[in-house]
């Protein structure tokens, strides 16, 4: 059985968009065996990490497990949707519930609000579960064409053709995944309706606060708005951290996509893209961050950043419907 595989080699290097859609259609249909919501959560985790792949289109198991854990923490702890499996409880749910009890974590705590050492322990356990039940299962459903994986090396390599496809159709893939995941959760849990569930499934557990990023950016740069150069004042609470490419598209917090902003710019920009000339500004800003070799935390955050990534992110966000361009007033 494919879910027991420890190594999966890429079976098909070249795929057309039609080929990939056909496989996705099968994945979302009744032809794909789905005893839990794991496969949907893996697709969502992959989308969150599309822009974090290295030069060989690889992701670590820890990167995917971190996103996977956030998704289930959001569903199980925040929204109390504990049935994620037919029959006995899904192992990931058990891990999360046990951790919440052991460490006395309140329901209102998002996963990112938990102490780092506790996060690492939880994600490590989820990573083990994903090895046993997740990677091989989706590999089988995608006929080995979407990705390769290796449990010993703990790496996941996405097919470059699938990577480009998911960038091009990111919003559509996300919406389809959310809908089918919500439909399955509706069957497993006593909830009002799928419309109620979509709102719970749509968002990967967002950071409760961007304050750590604010402190880092203020430490390395002047306290002025990235967009209008207005001076920022902590006393008046005018300092905001803005996602340069809207969070509603990228759905992750990466320092290379975060800028300091005043309240006026942050509010008016909302989920719109800034004018393209600002892309050059953030590229220059990121070059400065990448040179902060003395700051290990920043170096770690910039590890897989490349200039072409944020340019690609900007262009693909437009292709996915984020075509309302914003300029500061």
Could you characterize what this model shows?
This protein has helices spanning 17-28, 38-48, 61-78, 91-103, 116-133, 135-141, 160-168, 170-188, 194-202, 211-220, 247-250, 263-269, 277-290, 296-301, 307-319; strands at residues 7-8, 58-60, 147-150, 155-158, 240-243, 258-261, 273-274, 325-326. Strand 3 and strand 4 form a beta hairpin. The protein has 329 residues and is α+β, with helices and mostly antiparallel strands. The mean pLDDT is 90. It is built from 15 helices and eight strands. The protein has a four-stranded antiparallel beta sheet with strand order 1-3-4-2. A two-stranded antiparallel sheet has the order 5-6. The radius of gyration is 20 Å and the shape is globular. The protein folds into two domains: 2-202, no CATH class; 211-326, no CATH class. Helix 2 (38-48) packs antiparallel against helix 8 (170-188).
Supply the key terms.
329 residues, alpha+beta, four-stranded antiparallel beta sheet, two-stranded antiparallel sheet, 15 helices, 8 strands, 8% strand, globular, nuclease, endonuclease activity, endonuclease
Task: Break the fold down into its secondary structure elements and pairings.
Blueprint: E1 7-8, H1 17-28, H2 38-48, E2 58-60, H3 61-78, H4 91-103, H5 116-133, H6 135-141, E3 147-150, E4 155-158, H7 160-168, H8 170-188, H9 194-202, H10 211-220, E5 240-243, H11 247-250, E6 258-261, H12 263-269, E7 273-274, H13 277-290, H14 296-301, H15 307-319, E8 325-326
Parallel strand pairs: 7-8
Antiparallel strand pairs: 1-3, 2-4, 3-4, 5-6
């Amino acid at each position: 059985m494919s879910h027991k595989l420890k190594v999966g080699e890429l079976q098909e290097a070249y795929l057309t968009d039609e080929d990939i859609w056909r496989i996705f259609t099968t994945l979302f249909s009744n032809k794909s065996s789905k005893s839990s919501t794991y496969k949907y959560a893996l697709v969502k985790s992959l989308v969150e990490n599309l822009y974090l792949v290295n030069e060989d289109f690889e992701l670590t198991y820890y990167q995917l497990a971190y996103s996977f854990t956030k998704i289930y923490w959001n569903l199980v702890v925040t929204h109390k949707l504990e049935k994620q499996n037919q029959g006995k409880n899904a192992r990931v749910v058990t891990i999360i519930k046990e951790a919440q009890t052991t460490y006395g974590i309140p329901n209102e705590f998002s996963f990112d609000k938990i102490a780092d050492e506790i996060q690492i322990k939880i994600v490590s356990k989820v990573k083990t579960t994903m090895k046993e039940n997740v990677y091989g299962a989706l590999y089988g459903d995608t006929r080995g064409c979407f990705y390769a994986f290796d449990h010993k090396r703990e790496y996941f390599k996405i097919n470059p053709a699938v990577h480009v496809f998911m960038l091009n159709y990111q919003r559509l893939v996300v919406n389809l995944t959310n809908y089918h995941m919500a439909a399955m959760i509706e069957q497993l849990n006593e909830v009002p309706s799928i419309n109620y569930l979509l709102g719970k499934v749509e968002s990967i557990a967002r950071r409760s606060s961007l304050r750590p990023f604010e402190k880092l950016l203020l430490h390395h740069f002047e306290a002025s708005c990235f967009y209008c150069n207005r001076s920022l004042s902590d006393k008046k609470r005018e300092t905001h951290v803005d996602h340069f490419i809207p969070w509603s598209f990228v759905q992750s917090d990466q320092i290379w996509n975060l800028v300091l902003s005043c309240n006026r710019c942050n509010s008016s920009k909302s989920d719109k893209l800034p004018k393209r000339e600002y892309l050059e500004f953030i590229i220059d800003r990121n070059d400065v961050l990448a040179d902060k070799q003395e700051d290990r935390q920043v170096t770690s955050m910039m590890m897989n950043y490349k200039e072409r990534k944020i340019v690609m992110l900007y262009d693909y966000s437009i292709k996915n419907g984020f075509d309302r361009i914003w300029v500061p007033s």
